[in-house]
Amino acid sequence: xxxxxxxxxxxxxxxxxxxxxxxxxxxxxxxxxxxxxxxxxxxxxxxxxxxxxxxxxxxxxxxxxxxxxxxxxxxxxxxxxxxxxxxxxxxxxxxxxxxxxxxxxxxxxxxxxxxxxxxxxxxxxxxxxxxxxxxxxxxxxxx
Amino acid sequence: xxxxxxxxxxxxxxxxxxxxxxxxxxxxxxxxxxxxxxxxxxxxxxxxxxxxxxxxxxxxxxxxxxxxxxxxxxxxxxxxxxxxxxxxxxxxxxxxxxxxxxxxxxxxxxxxxxxxxxxxxxxxxxxxxxxxxxxxxxxxxxxxxxxxxxxxxxxxxxxxxxxxxxxxxxxxxxxxxxxxxxxxxxxxxxxxxxxxxxxxxxxxxxxxxxxxxxxxxxxxxxxxxxxxxxxxxxxxxxxxxxxxxxxxxxxxxxxxxxxxxxxxxxxxxxxxxxxxxxxxxxxxxxxxxxxxxxxxxxxxxxxxxxxxxxxxxxxxxxxxxxxxxxxxxxxxxxxxxxxxxxxxxxxxxxxxxxxxxxxxxxxxxxxxxxxxxxxxxxxxxxxxxxxxxxxxxxxxxxxxxxxxxxx
Lengths: 143, 407
Hints:
The structure holds two protein chains of two kinds. Chain A has helices at 3-14, 20-33, 75-88, 93-98, 103-106, 121-142; strands at 47-49, 54-62, 65-72. Chain A is α+β, with helices and mostly antiparallel strands. Classes of the chains: A alpha+beta, B alpha/beta.
């Protein structure tokens, strides 16, 4: 599935919710399904500190694709992190860099990425793209 | 029982009648900023519509009129805190600028290598960092008064911190994060036994009850307009003239000078020495209006009613299983900080928000205090006299929902 197909799939899933509480309940479910990050990456080095909640992010290159894992101390943040991983994980670095993330806006969660929210998610997206950039450069070098 | 007509008061605040997420707004973030009564909003609009002109500069009609109103506003503040002289009342942009001004200016004159400055564990970052920076510049030492488990300052420990090197004590009157009311009168008395001046950060106290700077005998008292139902961008620095006259200006520019040549500049007298540039005269006059407003409501009435709300909310919240109130001082204003067992404060805040209730979550710009209690943050509900018990009930319902969702 392409990156944008995954975004559209999430938009489709969220379209059935007309209540905020349903959306949050779904995010809570998603947070539970997020594969656990290897404890050795749940350290200061991989911590993206927000004012409100913390996010740990690790990325690795598997073949020509980026593999992400993440965790958060807040459940809603973790649920949104799970969505970001669902979209960006196992994609080629250049696809991660060249596609816009529009699904959060569409499902009404964009406010969670505003700089004032300080929940670590904006920094997480930035860090995910930075990893993609680094791996993109690495792949180009190897070509 | 208080005798305030809360419904009538609520009608004075247009923002309170709106809905958020299709639910009636419950505004419990008064510690961060208070809402404005219509009279304050009208006052600012009126100035911009009919009266605007730069003050102290023009010889023309508008300038003279508004200069008078700005100086009248200063007198309103003077009376409000019972300062001996109006020139001891300096308008700043807010508490933060007031503290920075004192830390810089007092620090330039009186702080030297090895000197000590005392603050407390309860401080907002705005009353920590300016002193930290000063200590770095001057190689001085910051000492911190500890708190007990209830969030009360340990006055005995404070006395032990005082030494011959102590040059100033800076503590808040009321803790923004916990609501603790500090016995600042005692703190000042003790410091004065050693001729040490004391700054009181009143950002969270002036809106809850009567403050008399002469009775407290504090050397400096600072607060913000926007937390006392006034406009943004205005604050107050009260200082005894014996200090202010000795202290050098913090910022320089227009209005604060007496004479400028390229060789030398002499500075204007108080209060202008500390009001460089065009002051926010619109907000200063708006602040005077806000002070008039709360004095009409009555600070005694406000204290009594808010205490009633605090007691009601404390009782209701304490009854919720897994809810822990952080900060249980004997003397508190209407602020309740709490955490829910095994639930992140951010998650709770997100859901409470969607119920139309505005609370604050996080460390409340008091990280060292959170570290003292070994927590990342809290959920804080801060009540004003326009809040109601029914609104407190809604918060309790929202907390039940949070517990169901995350429990």
